[in-house]
Amino acid sequence: MRKFNILKTLFGILLLVFLLAACNTNDDGATKDNSDGGDSSGNEAASDIEVVFIPKMTGNAFFESGNNGAQAMAEEIGFKVKYDGAPEGTVANQVQIINSAVSSGADAIAISSVTSDGLNQALQNALDAGVKVVTWDSDVDPEYRTAYINQGTPEILGAMLVDMAAEQMDDPNAEQQVAWFYSSPTVPDQNSWVDYAETYIAEKYPNWEIVTKQFGEGDEQLSLQIGESIIDSYPDLDAVIAPDSTALPAMAQAAENKGLTAEDIIITGFASPNSMRQFIENGTILNHGLWDVTDQGALAVYIAYYLAQGNELKVGDTVDVPNIGEVTVEPNSVQGYDYEAEDSGIIVLPERIVFTKHNTNDFDF
């Protein structure tokens, strides 16, 4: 009888060990979904995680819309997002904000950078402190972040800018005078689009002449002054392409101030529909483009939160993101980068939008 009791005890121990092992078995598949805010494998609960969401500058419709998406995602999942930026988009301001995020104990940052390499040391300090780094809208050196939430490759967006202008011309193959107008000669995203656009123009529209390239530094008043100066300095100008959310509305306002419409000069580029709707409705412009920046903000903070929970993210992985769907981590080479690493990649938004009078009222951002 005693021998039987010992066997029962041993059997119970073995059964308990088996059940514990089964409970701790994880699925190592490529598709990952961690939207429940924490799990039994040691990941932090959502409510314990803070992501600092950093724009190039505050007070701009594009970045405020990105923050709206970020806050909505945080509220749905249960983590915290702190929107932290400055009215002026400068390297010094962003370095200070990154340092503040580190010293305050933030778990991750999601930043739209004003520079391709000026934040390297601040980002390295953040990484050394265990802060996860994600970029959105405008990237940094890919060695200093895990994922870039990219609105489109230079090839996609550069060609889109040119095509939006060309489709308004009576004969895009004829001689055309074209101006570029955007924020800065150093901002990485816009310059990559323009660089490819100029290659695309040389191949497809060799009769176009780029007569000037102007920069508004993200300043509304300065951009308006430059817009008016472009019109005054180039009376035979056919088109202005402004891939910047401050420069484009300023350029349209400058044309309106001069009494010009889309019949007189083509103005197109990238900006939010809310900032450009009045100019479409009054005929100052016929089209402009963008992507859903609310989705971009939401995706950026979700990926930052996902990493802060202790999850790895490698090139080739897919992640199921609430309200957005499955996204894939692409290699850095899709952006033309030389730097390749298993834990550094790019997530490209699935679509971009051309806004006209027929669809502008369908969007609110």
From TrEMBL:
Residues 51-312 form the Periplasmic binding protein domain. One of its GO terms (cellular component) is outer membrane-bounded periplasmic space. Gene3D superfamilies: 3.40.50.2300. SUPFAM superfamilies: Periplasmic binding protein-like I. It is found in: Cell envelope. The lineage of its organism: Bacteria, Bacillati, Bacillota, Bacilli, Bacillales. InterPro entries: Bact_Solute-Bind_Prot2, Peripla_BP_I, SBP_2_dom. Residues 1-21 form the signal peptide. It comes from the Bacteria. NCBIfam families: PRK15408.1. Belongs to the bacterial solute-binding protein 2 family. GO terms for molecular function: carbohydrate binding. This is Autoinducer 2 ABC transporter substrate-binding protein LsrB. Keywords: Signal.
